[in-house]
Design a protein that fits this description.
Layout: H1 2-18, H2 27-35, H3 39-60, H4 65-93, H5 108-129, H6 145-177, H7 188-195, H8 210-228, H9 230-235, H10 237-258, H11 275-297, H12 307-313, H13 315-326, H14 340-365
């Protein structure tokens, strides 16, 4: 799924950066940019699932809530720091024309890091509230393995419910925090993490503030804990089929809600802040999850080398590098001047270059691609 997110990200960025004015008026460009609404939710959703897997592993080792929180929040802080470093790199490469405010722009890496830190806090609070990890002190040198598994199962359910609740709250609060509940008293660099206002006095839909983007991470966190439960493990492929069916039902439910004549919010923006659009994208994520499982279990993912799986192993690296060759000083093609065929050729070049970079990275690390 990370590999798919990378490919969707490549096509969105390449066509957005390179297509000329005439090509930008076409239906092709519209669908390209609509596909661009999926990479960020995919990355955040998968970050949540990965976070659940790591946390569940710690739980089964019998580690304390404090220890798990410190470890996971520190990892989130590292990702957040990488986001700041990336912004510094882009500012230095764009020296002379890049405004200094770009250093404080809320990008996807910043939000992934912030989301991970928030997930660490929520998991810590859920564990403490349900008194599951508190039964054993952090200094206990020999945790009971069977007891640890039991505690993990109980905590999985508590944390899944907590994560789903937080994700829903973020989605429901977003329309208000972008409009009449804006925290205008905060300096714009801080307010920007809430609603993406940046220094432009109005929330910007091209940024990645916590509201609504972190909600996708919490949905992934909730699903990750459920997938790790013994109940889900016993049902195997049926769980992923159920997720796909649930995604379809969620999309129809969200469309039904959106068609209601009564709206909860005084200002309604379907494409940017609507909880209904959030639910539609969650439904799409669940469908993609089910299809990805089929692809890897019985489909082409079993045939041999998979470019998607390969790119997914180095998603951070290819994200970091491709931006400069699409939007930056070293852009492969002249920006805002290409036809659809020439931009597509550039997209293919970026794809092959990033795939080669990914292979070199894996080879350099001395590991073989995992399937």
């Amino acid at each position: 799924m990370r590999g798919l997110a990378c490919v969707l990200m490549f096509q969105t960025h390449c066509y957005d950066s390179w297509l000329g004015s005439d090509a930008r008026k076409t239906t092709f460009f519209m669908w390209s940019q609509l596909g661009g609404t999926l990479p960020a939710p995919l990355f955040l959703f998968l970050a949540g699932i990965s976070f659940a897997l790591v946390t569940d592993k710690f739980l089964k080792k019998g580690l304390s809530a404090n220890h798990i929180a410190r470890t996971t929040i520190r990892r989130g802080a590292e990702i957040f720091g990488m986001g700041l470093l990336f912004r510094l790199q882009e500012f230095l490469l764009g020296w002379k024309w890049a405004p200094w405010t770009d250093l404080l722009r809320v990008d996807i890496l910043n939000t992934i890091g912030m989301s991970m830190m928030l997930m660490g806090l929520v998991c810590w609070a859920a564990a403490r509230a349900h008194d599951t990890l508190g039964l054993r002190s952090e200094e206990s040198p020999h945790p009971n393995a069977a007891k640890g598994a039991t505690l993990g199962l109980r905590t999985q359910l508590a944390m899944a419910a907590s994560a789903a609740g937080v994700g829903l709250c973020i989605a429901l609060l977003t329309p208000m925090l972008w409009t009449i509940w804006r925290p205008r008293g905060l300096p714009w660099p801080l307010e920007s993490y809430i609603n993406g206002v940046h220094n432009l006095d109005q929330p910007q839909p091209w940024l990645f503030p916590i509201f609504p983007w972190s909600a996708f991470a919490f949905v992934g966190l909730a699903l990750g804990f459920l997938l790790q439960s013994e109940w889900a493990r016993q049902r195997g492929a049926a769980i992923f089929l159920l997720a796909g069916v649930g995604g379809v039902c969620l999309i129809y439910f969200a469309r039904w809600l959106d068609a209601r004549p009564v709206q909860l919010y005084p200002i309604y923006d379907f494409w940017h802040t609507s909880p209904n659009f959030f639910l539609i994208r969650v439904g799409l994520l669940l469908i993609i999850l089910g299809l990805a499982y089929l692809w890897c279990r019985w489909g082409a993912g079993q045939w041999g080398f998979s470019p998607m799986i390969q790119l997914g192993q180095t998603s951070l690296l290819v994200y970091w590098v491709h931006i400069e060759f699409v939007y930056g000083r070293f852009s492969l093609l002249t920006k805002r001047a290409q036809s659809i065929p020439s931009a597509t050729f550039g997209l293919l070049t970026i794809f092959l270059a990033m795939l080669t970079l990914s292979l070199l990275r894996i080879r350099f690390k001395g590991t073989s691609p995992a399937r």
